[in-house]
Amino acid sequence: MRTITIENPERTKEIERSLIKKFRKPIWRNFTKAVQRYELIKEGDRIAACISGGKDSMLMAKLLQELKRHGPVPFELVFLVMNPGYNEENWKLIQENAGILGIPLTVFESDIFNIVEGIEQSPCYLCARMRRGYLYSHAKELGCNKIALGHHFDDMIETVLMGMLYSGKVETMMPKLHSRNFEGMELIRPMYMVKEADIKAWRDYNKLHFIQCACRFTENCATGNTEKGSKRDEMKKLIAHFRKTSDVIEQNIFNSVHNINLNTVIGYHKGDMQYNFLDDYDREKGEQI
Question: Which fold has domain 9-152+169-227?
C-alpha cells in the first residue's frame, strides 16, 4: 500500500461533505440505489476499487470509501492502481489527488503501454483487455473477490445505442458480471446510475483536476477525449441532441433494457439457446389481440 499524506484534512472533509449534502440526490443516492438494486456489495466482500486516475474512478473510490465507513454492510476495500506506463506528470497528479481525497493507494507496475505501442489494429481494445486481466489477477492475489470499475449511467446508455445502431442487437453494459477467466471473481459498476454531468459538477465544485487520458499516446490531447471521432463519441453527440429536445429520453433508454417485453421481440438468445417468435406463434393463436 502506498502511504499518503493528507496535506489539508479540512479540504478532504469538505469534499466528503459535498457528497452527502450538495450532491446527495444526484450522486450519493444514485450510487447507493445502484448498490442495493443490483446487489453489488455483500457482507464479507473484499473489493478492489480500480483507479485509473480519471474523474470517474476517483469519485467511485471515494464513494466506496464513504459507504464502507457509514454503510450498514461490512466489507473490505483495496484502492488498486496499475501504472501501465504513465508519464511523470500524470503519475504525480494521480498520487496528489489520492492525497487530497484521503485514498490510500495500492500500486503495481506493468508494461502494457510498451506492449501495445507497436500494435496497429485495435490497440485500444487490446490495451483495455490486458489492463482488465492485470487488475483481476492482482486483485485476486490481494484476496479480493470483486473489482469495481468507474463506468457510469452515460456509458451504459451509449452502449445500448451503439449495439442497436452499429451491431444490430440489443445489449447493454451490465451492472455486474462473473469473470470467465478468474474463478470466483466478479466485476461491479457501482456508479451505474450516476450521470456524467453530475460527476463533472462534483469535480468542478470541489476544484479538482484529474488526468484526462490514461493512454500515453493521447495524453497530450487538448480535450482528453481518447475516442474523438469514434462510435462512442457519435453516441455522446446523439444523446446530447436528445437532451435538448426531451428530458426523458436518456432515462427511457436506460429503462428500456430493464423492461423488455418478450412478447414483442422477434428473436433473442441466451447462451446456446436461440428463440424466434415463430417457434410458438401458432400455439398462441388468439392470445395477442
Answer: Rossmann fold (3.40.50)
